[in-house]
């Protein structure tokens, strides 16, 4: 499972490869696939690939952690604020009953970072 912070940092998917000359058979097959996708109303989305440089840096950093630091890091990664409770708090603060789900997610993330900073300075 990919961390939301890592997903936000990832660059957009690579551009599609340079088009090459297709034989008439390949062109017909491609048209058939497009027609099927239109009928199903689905699309093909390219999965972003992990950056090997970032992975190597992360491994190097984690290799230097003590057992206590690894335990704290794993706990931080697994922790999350309940969106329902955060929504209630935002409704009380703003007085607005409609809270955008994206705002709720952002506030949960900022709160998690704030609590992480408090724990780190302890």
Largest beta-sheet details: none
**Helix/strand-derived class?**
mainly alpha
Please tally the β strands and state the result: 0
CATH architecture of the domain at 52-120: Orthogonal Bundle
- The top-level CATH class of the domain at 52-120 is Mainly Alpha
The level of helicity is 55-70%
What fold name stands as the CATH topology of the domain at 52-120?
Histone, subunit A
C-alpha end-to-end distance: 30 Å
Strand-residue proportion: under 5%
For CATH, the homologous superfamily of the domain at 52-120 is named as Histone, subunit A
Description:
There is one protein chain. 66% of the residues lie in helices and 0% in strands. With 122 residues, the chain is mainly alpha-helical. The longest helix is centred in the C-terminal third of the chain and has 21 residues, at 101-121. Mean pLDDT is 75; it is low at 11-20 and 40-44. It has a domain at 52-120: Histone, subunit A, CATH 1.10.20. It is built from six helices and no strands. It has helices at residues 4-9, 24-40, 52-63, 67-78, 83-94, 101-121.
